[in-house]
Amino acid sequence: MIDFLDQLKKVGFDYATYSGISISPFELGEVIVKEKTLKEAEKKVTEIDKHFAQGFYNEAEKKQKKIAVWEECKENLQNQLVTNLEKKNTTSFYHIWDSGARASGESLTQIFAMRGNTTNYLGEVIETPITSSLWEGLSPFEFFISVYGAVKGMIDIALKTAEAGYLTRRLVEASQSLSIISLDCGTDNNILAEENDMPLAKRVYGRYLAQDISNKKEGVILTRNTLLLEKEVKIIQKNKISAVQVFSPLTCQLVEGICQKCYGLDLSKPGEAIALGTAVGIIAAQSLGEPGTQLTMRTFHSGGITGDEDITQGLPKVKQIFDNVKPDKQEKSILAKTSGEIISVEEKIIRQKDDKGQEIIYPLGKKKKVRVNQGDIVKKGERITSGKIDLEEYLEIMGRDICQNYIKEEVRKVYDNQGIDIDEKHIEIFARQMLSKVEIISGGDSEYLAGDMVNYQQLEKVNQALVVNKKKPASFKNIISSLKDLASYPDSFLAGISFQNTLKSLVNYSLYQPVDYLRGSKENLIAGQLIPVGSGFKERERFLKNK
Ligand SMILES: [Zn+2]
Description:
Blueprint: H1 2-19, H2 34-53, H3 59-87, H4 92-99, H5 105-112, H6 140-175, E1 180-182, E2 191-194, H7 200-204, E3 213-215, E4 219-222, H8 230-238, E5 243-246, E6 258-259, H9 260-263, H10 280-289, E7 299-301, E8 310-312, H11 314-322, E9 340-345, E10 349-354, E11 359-363, E12 377-378, H12 391-398, H13 400-417, H14 424-434, E13 437-442, E14 453-455, H15 456-468, E15 475-478, H16 483-488, H17 493-497, H18 502-512, H19 521-526, H20 535-546
Parallel strand pairs: 1-6
Antiparallel strand pairs: 2-5, 3-4, 7-8, 9-10, 9-12, 10-11, 13-14, 13-15
Bound molecules: zinc ion.
């Protein structure tokens, strides 16, 4: 085998030297009619200036029109270039371009035709383009204006790398203790996977089915507890089923981990269910953190006709959700507290009538744009005004399940918009973590005291036992834990104090939680032990059994 691999390597290296691609700019010289194309564009620009002077356009319109002219000019040149390149299909340039590995039409255009429009340091396109190509060389003025965008780009990349790196750290620290610790938690809880902008097939692939699926002709076609792989997903598609109940990490009942059935497929091993001891928390963190640098850093503040909507996207949006950033009063969107008709939209307040006929008054802030009209029937949780949603308020109005789903959808959309494919399970793990702690309001017949922060799954267990014994269960309030909260106050004090604010957390832990059970990976690593995942999981099971 080793001999074979050695020879394979030799063959590879040998033939790599045969390809011998070398490039020459002369291969593509004289392939475009540049001067004429530029002159035409210049003529159009002079025309625009004339109209502007006559008052037909305002400043913004003039700029927009000029930019469009140069865009068109560049596109024209690019088309000429690409057409000619296809004719010269024996050149190295053709091979590089055609392979799709390097050099898009855009990069060739920048080299041979024109660099085109550039941006200033604010990222706005400026109306003077760079008409020279890199092959011709830039004029001092062109070089000067091209530098703004380049500098901004480099600074952005440096900042983004740091931001994404720190996000990854917080993600890992917030979920490092989650691994697969049992085959089946025995829960009946599940989620309803529905088709929206994401196809159902993709949504359910790799999950265990939580219901029987049947059709009229054949009866039951898929049974509960089936792992949905290609074959099974095809059956669902063929029967035109639009919603399916599946198990999910969101609804797993285990307190310290997740079970195989709720997690489903191991995404790195086609066809295999997740193995016991897999560190699914860390895998989820890395899956969301690694593409972080590919997300944009820009926050769009679109003004003018479209309104004062602030559209946060990319990395800032992911941070906003995972860090549970509270929008300040001015930016906050007002949410309908209940379903019902809007009875009036006034200057300072909006009145709504609930289904019992009771009137609800929403005071309006200064900068808010109203999204409803008199007579509209709004649903509970719907946004009445523009602005950002306060997660905590949304949770209070809509409850756990819908809020978790909101977190999942919002984060997924961010990655989706940038063309990054993320399995929803990874986001679900974080939605689970963010709602993992609840605050006790009244202890009932449990041992909890009002104000205690308790693990949700743990509390559910305690409450179920109380109900069975005809005792009073504890009442609680859902709260949102940000990544920072989760990383700062995990169950392990070793993991907690080694994150940030060591002194503060040492004091806290010594008062409230002075024992570390060494359950997560991080605390075991710190203690110099085998971590309880992978092969270490089996070791730990053996150890616990013998004890
Ligand atoms: Zn489970």
